[in-house]
Automatic annotation (TrEMBL):
Keywords: Oxidoreductase. Belongs to the short-chain dehydrogenases/reductases (SDR) family. This is 3-ketoacyl-ACP reductase. CDD domains: SDR_c. The keyword Oxidoreductase applies. The keyword Oxidoreductase applies. It comes from the Bacteria. One of its GO terms (molecular function) is oxidoreductase activity. InterPro entries: NAD(P)-bd_dom_sf, Sc_DH/Rdtase_CS, SDR_DHRS6-like, SDR_fam. GO terms for biological process: bile acid metabolic process.
Amino acid sequence: MKLQGKTALITGAGSGMGRAMAALFAAEGAAVAVVDVVEDRVREVVESIQNQGAQVIGITADVSKQEEIDRMVETATGRFGRLDILCNNAGVMDGFHPVGEVSDELWDRVMGINLEGPFRTCRLVVPMMVKQGGGVIVNTASVGGLFGGRAGTAYTVSKHGLIGLTKSIAWYYHDQGIRCNAICPGGIETAIGAGPNPSEIGFSYVQRGLATSPPPGSPEDVAHLALFLVSDDSKYINGATVVIDGGWTTY
């Protein structure tokens, strides 16, 4: 087992890629904290992992709120005693709205979940990892964090920022035994959807690029990449942005 004796906290673990990560990490020996904003999803995932005989706890939390991040991390570390792995996976889309259509409400929501949440969680967890002698962070970014036309403005900016956060953490904390990498998925079969009130104009532009996309990958494809990045198999990989898109960005 690649993660025997390790503890992991995974946000957005109620469905899709986060759920697949939680199941796979648990199967590889990790004790897992399953975090999602939807309580029923948390309960379902926890029950599924418990049926495998793995150690797991469920936490319902909104990662756009500092007080809920504090409670999330406190609950996980209180139960497990330490935190070896953090996967910032929770995310939302933005309806493909270009900058001229972005409301303050949409901007705040997307940035709060996709960027500020991971930033605040890392700000809390990194000093703990330093104190315990190391740890691994994986941030779920997107090919939208590498290019300009995969989503709307808010999502694009949030994922570019998340990649910047990843590289900054990797550089400043590598001497303290912390690795931080970003996954950049392309089209994956998840329930993230387009986001609220999709923009007709924005989506029409995004569709030009979608025509070049290969068939979507599965959440399990991403989970196996995440397992590689949090395990010792990737011990010399730090500050990387790893694209998993079936070759979409080769076009």
